[in-house]
Each structure stands twice: as C-alpha cells, then as structure tokens.
Amino acid sequence: MKSLILHTATRLMIGVLILFSLFLFFRGHDEPGGGFIGGLVGAGAFTLYAIAFGTEATRKVLRIDPITLIALGLLSLVVSGLIPMFLNEPFLTGKWLFIEWGAMETKLSTPLLFDIGVYLCVVGFIVTVIFSLEEE
Amino acid sequence: MLIVIAVIFVVALVSPWIHRVFREKSGWVLALLPLGSFIYLASWLPHIAGGNVVQESTAWVSMALFNVDLAFYLDGLSLMFGLIITGIGTFIVLYGSGYLGGDANLPRFYCAVLLFMGSMLGVVLADNLISIFVFWELTSFTSFILIGYSHEQENSRKAALQALLVTGIGGLALLAGLVLMGFASGHWEVSTLLNEGNIVRDHPHYVAILILVLAGAFTKSAQFPFSFWLPGAMAAPTPVSAYLHSATMVKAGVYLLARMNPVLGSTEIWLLLVGGFGLATLLISAWLALSFTDMKQILAYSTVMALGTMMMLIGLGTELAMEGLAVYILSHAMYKGALFMVAGAVDHEAGTRDVLKLGGLRSLMPISFVAAALAAISMAGIPPLYGFIAKEIVYEAALGAPLWSVLVIIVAVIANIAIVAASAIVVIRPFLGKKVETPKKAHEAPLSMWIGPLTLAVLGVLLGVLPFLVDKALMVPVASSVYGAPLDFYLSLWHGINLPLILSLLTLAGGILVYRNWDGLRESSPMRLYQTGFAQFPISGYDGLVSGLLGFAGLQTRFFQNGLMANYLITILATLLIAVGYTFITRSGLIWDPSFENVLVQEWALTIGIFTSLGIMLAFGHSRLTMVIGAGVVGFALALIYLMHGAADLAMTQVLVETLTVILVVLVLIHVPRIKDARSATSRVRDAGVAVAAGVMMTLLIFAVTAAPFDAFISEFYAEASYPLAHGRNIVNVILVDFRALDTMGEVVVVAIAGLAVYALIKMKRFGSSGLSKAGGAESSNAASKQGKSS
User: N or C: which end of chain B has fewer CB within 10 A?
Assistant: First the structure.
C-alpha cells in the first residue's frame, strides 16, 4: 500500500511491536501474556509490515520462511516434552533450572521452551496465511 | 535397550548432515550404527542362552487406568529378531550407499531407513502393549516413506499408499485387540501376560481379541487375501525391498503372533485361523511366484510363501513347529536378504531384472553369482545349506500336525516344489546360459553392494555345515520363548533315511521338472487365470474399495459443501439446534430464572451498545466490509466484558485475534467475487427462522447453565497450585504450558496443520488446478480464521 504515513509509522512501530511481543512473552508466566498472546502481537507486527511494504520486503525482514517457523515451533514443543523423559519422568513434566546471579535469579524451564514453541507456531501460522493470501 | 533405540533415532535425524560431511563414505560411517547395535545385542547371547531374560522400564505416560511405559524385554525370540534387524541393517545401509549412490535423495533414504530400523527394533524389544503398537505404527509410517522413495513416479506413490492403508487398517484393529487384551487381563506387559495366558484365553472376549490381533498380524505379514500390498511394494528401491519386505517388517506380524503364542495360542480356533491362513497363503503364493518374470516379483511371492509357512508353524504350535519356526525365520532372513540384494545388483548393473532379458552374467558378475547361487540353493532346501535343515524340520512339523496332517504335508510339498523352481529361475536364468544383450553393459557391482549378499549366503553354508554354532545359543531360546516352556534340541544335517528326506527328494525332483517346463507353464492359460484370480483380483478389490470410498466422500462433500456459505451455516446451525436442543430439553429441561440484580450499569451500557451498533450495521450496511467490521465490534465489546471481570489474558487474546481475523477475512474477501443475493423470499424466511431459533436456544442454554451452582474446585486448585507446583503466577499461562500442556500441544499441532493446508490449497490454485481446489482455497482460509478465533 503506497502511503507515506503508513510507511513511516510502520518503520517506527515494527521494532516496538516486536519488543512488545517479546515483553508479553517473557512476563507471561507471572502476568498477563505468554506465548500465544506474544505470538499474536508478533504476527500482527509482520502483518502490518506486509500490508505497508508487501510480502517480498517482509520475507527479507523475517529472514526465515514462516513454514520453517512452524516446524521449529513444533520441534520446541516435542523437545520440551522429551527432556524430562531423559530424566526418567513422564513426557511433558515441567523441569526447572534456577540460576542465581547475585541478587538476580534466572529461571530456565521446559515450560519456557514449550511456550517458545507456541509462540513460533502462532507467528508462523498467521504469517504463512497472510503471505499466501497476499501473494495470490 | 531404550538407549540403543534412542541413539538410532537421533543418528537417523542427523544422518543428512553426516552424509554431507563424509559424502561417498557416508554409507560406511552410518553402517557402524547398526553394526554397533548388533554387537551390543550379540553380547547378550550367553546370558540369554543360559535361559535368562533382560528387562528394563522407563516411565512414559501414567494414567489412572494403566501406565504406558517404555518397557523392554529381551528373550530368545526378541534377540533373534534384533540380531536380524541390526545385522542385515548393517549390510542394507552399505548396499543402499552403492545402489543409490549419486542420487540426490540419498540422505532421505539414510534417515528413513534408520528411523525404520529404530522402530522395528522397538517392535521386537518392547514389552508394553501400547508401546508395541506405537513402534508397530512407526514401522508402517517409515515403510510408507521408503516405498514412496521415488515419489515423482505415480506407481510408487500408489504402492506406498496401498501398503500404508492395508497395514494401517490392520494396525487399528491391532490397537483395539491389544487394549481389549490389556483390560481383559489387567496386565499391560507382555512379560507378565506370558504367564497369565489362561486369563486371556478363558475371557469371554477371547475370540474378539484374537480376531483383532490376527487382523493386525495378517495385514502386516501379507497373509492371503491381504498379500497383494507386498508385491506392490516392490516399487520401492531394492535396498528397501531387501530389508523391509523380506527380512524385517513383514515379519512383524509373525513376530507378534510368535510372541503371543503362549498368551493366545494352543486353542482350537487359533490352530484353525493361524494355521489355516498360513497354509492357504503358502500354497497360493508359492505358485503365483512362477507366473512372473520380474526377479523382484518372484522373490516377493516366495516371501509371501515363507510368511505363510511361518504362520502355519505358529498355528500348529507343537514343539517341532516351534523348532522349525526358529530355524526357518533365521534361514529365510539370510537367503532372502541375499537374493533381493543380488536382484537389485543385477538390475543396477544390467539395467533390467526381467529374467527373460538376462543371461550369462556369471562371468561378468562372478561374486554376485556365487552369492545368488548359494542363497538360491538354501532357498530350494538343498543340503548342506541351512535352508535344507529348515525345510526338513518344517516337513517334520507338518507330518506331526495335530489336525489333518496329511493335507498339511501335501500342501507343504506342493508349495515347496514351486519354490525349488523359483530358486532355479532367479539364479539360472540371469547368470547361466549364453550371454544376452542387456540394456546396460553389465559388470560386477561395487564392494558395498556384494559384501552383504555374499556374507549372508556364506553364513547359510556355514550354519548348514555347523548348525551347532547357533542351536544352543539362539535356536533353543527362540523356540522356548515361542513355545512358552523350555525346550531342548540340537540340529544336524543328516537324520538318516526317513520320510522328510524322501519328501525332500520328491520336492527337488518336482521342482526341477517344473523349472524345465516353466516357459510353457507360465504362458499357459490356467496359469494366467490363476494369476488373475489370486494376484489381480485382490488388487481390484482394494482399488474398488478405495474408489468407492472416495466416491462416497465426494458425494457427501458435494452435498454438504456445495460452495454456498449460506448452506454451510444452515447445516451447522440446524445440526446444533437438533443435537443440543434435544439433549437440552430431555436432560435438563428449560430453566427460566434470570436475575438482573447484579448487572452493573456499565454492563448494561455495553450490551445495549453492542446490539445497537450491530443493528445499524445489519440494517444499513450493504457492503461486506461493513459486516466484517460489525462482527469485529462485537468481538472488541466482548473483550471489554472480559476485562470488567478481571480476565486480562482473555481480553488481550480476544482483541488480538479479533484484529487479525478482520485482516484475514478482508484479505480473503478481496479475492472473492461479488455475488448478488439471489435468495427467494421463502429461503430468506427459512434462514431467518433458523437464525432466530439458534439464538433463542443459546440464550436459554446460557440461562440454564448459569442457574446451576458454580463448582469452584478446579479453579481453586489451579489458583493454589500454580506457584508452588509450576513456579508461575499467571494461572492461564501455567495451565496452557504446564498443567494441560498436552492439550495445548494438540491445539498447536492443529494450528500448524491448518497453516500448511491453507498454504498448500492456495498454492495449488496458483498452479492452475481445477475449480474444485479454487473453492477449497477460500474455504480453508475461512476455516483457518475461524480456527484462529476459537483457539
């Protein structure tokens, strides 16, 4: 779509939107947000970009084929389920790793990996559909 | 054992990269994996020979009713199958690297064949009924990929699908049988079931269990009339045929019934069904082999005959039959694997595998000739090869059959006459006689392609001359585990002059006679009729079933999905009205107890706002865009309601999904041509009626639901357990990614598949497909946007 306002606004917005989607994603375990919502915002960012600059430019910005994103997402889901099995626990049991950085604490976990999978699948799905429809 | 299977799966997945590093040498590198597994399994030989078993178990899925554990059980039977799978697998990986060398899809072959190997090992080692089924299905799936290796060719796609459908349907029956068996006995581990067989046999569901399990085993192991998929699967590259369709996968059914013999066997119906189907299969397919001139087809039907023999032996269930089964399986794996690989080598080097177009290859391909000759002599059952010992015991077992032993032995001899002739055909025709002009200038196959067949063929000689090498170490444990009680025997070439030996001589003489008259026999009209009846007819039956099913699917698709959205809505809403309305009225009855006391002012305002804006849009908006936006407004208003009740996550999701849905629908609508509303006045009234009725029903339903007391047990549990158990304060997210992660996983997979379907359908349209797929593209994207909404 040729519109100077849309172009300028999109250029400014896309970074903010992606940051916001990551923000929503990471705070998701304790406050409203998470992989699904974060993924929707992320997909919204690329949808906006696709409307403003077309799909070819968006593919360049995205760098990865959206279908690959879906595949990576499914892989994360499966891996997050398999990790506990190697620790002799049932499929998809949540496993946690707490890393202390002085006063700070980082929590790594298989549910986090699972949520990353959800995020990637949601982004991949919506962008795939948008691209397919736009490129028709 | 779990580690071995896991390593095979992991290496399978990274094998394309291994191939990228080692290039032409990758076959030799990857062959180390099955070789290592073979050595690992072989290291258990002394332990198993001592009458012991090995068990291990890892928790997988735990449920209230039963557990699905990754439990493994190694005894004589599973050890022999494991050794065959990994041993022949080693040669197949090498052979594949030569046969498919230079092919761009070679990495895919490595990946699929190793995945298959892991799955097949899983089938024979698994102890838990459900995990047996899971590995069983994995073998069907990997076999589908391997048969369809040359996926550009229609016949290989068709053969792959045919094998998948036949074995897949059998697999579903098997699942039902295994579940029924588990519930009937209360045991889900084969190792415990082996001692509790009488519970299953005395259970009122025994016959049902038996028939379901047999349906799985007979389809997988190509018993008549399901045998047609196996010769069809010869469309696969030869390494695949040699591995899956002679030595391993097709024996999964044999393995299963051998495994289950102590549980389900030794009843009259078992004897009749397993023995009967086996006997019919071995007779029919042995002679079918003689109606073909393609080496792989001949070998395929002789494999079906061998599978029939194994089934018959399992059915007989006597000590001798078990002994024969053990020896026959081992000897068959060796000679048939070798013969298939040689057939592939001939095809590869000479350009054809039609025996009529081949001849005199012995001087050009001397090593392959030696391998083929030794393997064929073993198949024909001529001393001093291992195949001779196998056939002798089969005859002995047939003579000792508990029922109709005269019939059984006559059938066995008649079938083996055909097999002797077939053995002669596959080795004498291509290799002896005078040289024939072949499509390619033939020369010896590379080392990677002859080492396997030669080793297997020589092994057949070695074990024939020195049978004691394996009888105490492997054959006795195998026969004992199938029999369900310890057996003891030893094997030898010479039994003195007895009835089996005389029958063997008779078989050999008959076979030579048939071979000499083969050309006339093959072209004769009874043989043609025989082939039509037993080889073509089941295929036509299958084709008829499939096309009938497709026709029916097309019919009901055209009826329900005729392209008119209004029809879809009517169908969906009418079904909803009838199904939900009926249940609602009969089960709960109307409850009319609305109370509006607790409704806040802003809620009233919002509701009235929604209805007014909707009304205005519907009354005055005639463009589709207005209507889409109208629907969007309702969605946003709903998000507000969620927010008022403190459901921030739901509200955010609703807003985002609503936004994206509007964009998606608009993108679809751009491509849909404008259609004038041509409905008649009556159909408008009908539509309005259905719409109002559905609305009224939903309203009444909500009143009834809200009138029921709210049970806060589950939400309280999640609120309390969320942080201590899952380290998260956002209950919605914790439920999604932890407590109910399996549900989420299912939903995400649906989203992924929907995405791929949209992509495929829209691309199909661009490549100028028919009008049907055009409609499909628009449909599915609508379905996809709905999907987005509902998730």
Answer: C
Q: Report the alpha-carbon distance of residue B74 to residue B46 in Å, rounded.
A: 13
Q: How far is B95 from chain A (nearest CA, A)?
A: 32
List, as ranges, residues 728-787 from B with C-beta within 8 Å of A. Answer: 728-730, 732-734, 736-738, 741-742, 744-745, 748-749, 751-752, 754-756, 758-759, 762-763, 765-766, 781, 784-785
Please report, to the nearest 10 degrees, the dihedral formed by the alpha carbons of residues B133, B134, B140, B145 taken in order. 180
- Tell me what percent of chain B is helix, strand and coil, each rounded to the nearest 5: 80, 5, 20
A36, A74, A128: residue with CB nearest B759: A128
Show the CA angle centred on residue B282, arms to residues B252 and B535, nearest 5°. Answer: 95
Answer for the pair B380, B387: CB distance below 8 angstroms, yes or no. yes
Domain definitions of chain B by residue range: 280-523
Helix H, strand E, coil C: the string for B438-489 is: CCCCCCCCCHHHHHHHHHHHHHHHHHHHCCHHHHHHHHHHHHHHHHCCCCCC
> For the whole model, what pTM was predicted?
0.79
Of B365, B367, B366, B347, the closest CA to residue B357 belongs to B347
Instruction: Give the closest-approach CA distance of B96 to chain A in angstroms.
Output: 29
Hey, which residues does B128 pair with through a beta bridge?
B189
Asked if residue B83 lies in contact with residue B14, where contact means CB atoms within 8 angstroms, the answer is no
Rounded Cα distance, B217 and B766, in Å: 44
Q: Each residue of A71-118: pLDDT tens digit?
A: 999 999 999 999 988 887 878 888 888 888 877 888 889 999 999 999
Residue for token pair 């994103």: A69
Where is A78: in which H helix or E strand? Answer: helix A66-86
pLDDT tens for B363-395 read 889 999 999 999 999 999 888 889 999 999 999
Tokens of A92: 């998809």
Both tokens of B40, joined, read 């690992």
Mutate to test the interface with B, among A10, A125, A131 (most CBs of B within 10 A): A125
Provide the sign of the torsion angle of the four alpha carbons B711, B715, B720, B725, taken in this order.
positive
Query: What pLDDT, in 10s, does the model give residues B210-243?
Result: 999 999 999 999 998 888 888 888 888 999 999 9
B265: DSSP letter: -
Residue B51's CB is within 10 A of a number of other CB atoms, namely: 12
Axis-axis angle for helices B32-42, B76-99 (nearest 10): 160
Tokens standing for residue A69:
């994103």
Split into its structural domains, chain A has a count of 1
Q: How far is CA B134 from CA B68, B79, B120, in A?
A: 10, 20, 11
| pLDDT-wise least confident of B14-18, B80-84, B106-110, B497-501 | B497-501
From the list A29, A90, A126, the residue facing B730 with the nearest CB is A29
Residue B551 pLDDT exceeds 80: yes
Residue of B422, B412, B444 lying closest to B342 (CA atoms): B444
Strand partners, B406: none
Please tell me the predicted confidence (pLDDT) of residue B589.
77
Q: In whole angstroms, give the CA distance from residue B109 to residue B97.
A: 9
**What value does the mean pLDDT take over residues B749-753?**
94
Mutate to test the interface with B, among A21, A59, A129, A131 (most CBs of B within 10 A): A129
pLDDT for B210 equals 94
Tens digits of residue pLDDT in B598-611? 788 888 888 888 88
- Three-state SS sequence of B579-643: HHHHHHHHHHCCCCCCCCCCCCHHHHHHHHHHHHHHHHHHHHCCCHHHHHHHHHHHHHHHHHHHH
**Average pLDDT score over residue span B703-720:** 83
Per-window interface: B 16-75 vs A, CB < 8 A = 58-62
Out of B177-191, B283-297, B662-676, least confident range: B662-676
Full residue range of the structural domain in which residue A98 is found: 4-134
